[in-house]
Design brief:
9 strands; alpha/beta; 35% helix; two-stranded antiparallel sheet; 15% strand; 247 residues; globular; seven-stranded mixed sheet
């Protein structure tokens, strides 16, 4: 059973253009993403899925520099981009994360994948994103290639094509879903990168914790930092997450 992590990445962003190539502590956001995902023991392969647009040549060059497999597909039909990336790389299990999560916790992601693998006879899809208990930015969705293929073949709504998984989690009569929850609800914390305020927070966290000789830090270490510096939450707590519209 081949587990492939597909990371959607592109230069275009309505709020913070070029965000994934911005640098923190000498590394691009995308490189931090890769460093953290490489620690997930049950991921066999990582694929950066970008678009065929000329401006996303920069994403391809960064993928090449990092030695990461890349795939190029539709800008707007992200579902098709995921499907063809998964098919080309012979995925049995797809792990979906996005490139705007440079604080993603490899231990959390690994546990979610393990939960899916241990219960794959019961579930088609496991995530920590629908009933949120983790900080936003630790988002991990795990699903079978068969579920992705059905969504690719059946989804017609623009929302479902743009966001990959809504067709799956909106159709629990076809798919068996499970949510992976934390013991404590930290869903009020925003650790994703979408605005300049988000960048300021993430950069501040890295400057506090990141060290070249020991460059990995976990969700729990960030939470400990918040205990000493509760003002961190004021940096981006006024930012509203963009909604996935039913259209």
């Amino acid at each position: 059973m081949k587990v492939v992590c597909i990371v959607q990445a592109r230069i275009g962003s309505t709020r913070l253009k070029g965000k994934i190539l911005k640098k923190i502590c000498g590394k691009t956001i995308l490189e931090h993403d890769m460093d953290r995902l490489k620690r997930v023991k049950n991921i066999e392969k990582i694929v950066i899925a970008t678009t065929t647009l000329e401006k996303d040549n920069a994403v391809v060059e960064e993928a090449k520099r990092l030695g990461i497999t890349y795939f190029r597909g539709s800008e707007e039909d992200v579902l098709s981009r995921y499907y063809y990336a998964a098919k080309e790389n012979n995925a049995d299990v797809v792990v979906r994360v996005t490139s705007d999560c440079p604080l993603i916790d490899s231990e959390v992601t690994e546990k979610i994948i393990t939960h899916y693998i241990n219960s794959k006879d019961q579930y088609d899809y496991v995530s920590n994103t629908i009933e949120r208990t983790y900080p936003r930015g630790l988002d991990t969705e795990v699903f079978s290639f068969e579920a992705l293929e059905m969504a690719f073949n059946e989804a017609v709504m623009q929302r479902d094509r743009e966001h990959v998984t809504p067709y799956i989690w909106d159709n629990n009569k076809y798919f068996k879903l499970a949510q992976y929850k934390n013991d404590i609800d930290y869903s009020n914390l925003r650790w994703t990168l979408d605005t300049i305020e988000d960048l300021e927070l993430i950069e501040t966290i890295y400057n506090f914790i990141y060290k070249e000789d020991k460059n990995y830090f976990s969700m729990n270490q960030i939470l400990q930092l918040y205990e000493f510096h509760p003002e961190l939450n004021n940096i981006n707590n006024n930012i509203e997450q963009k909604k996935i519209l039913n259209n």
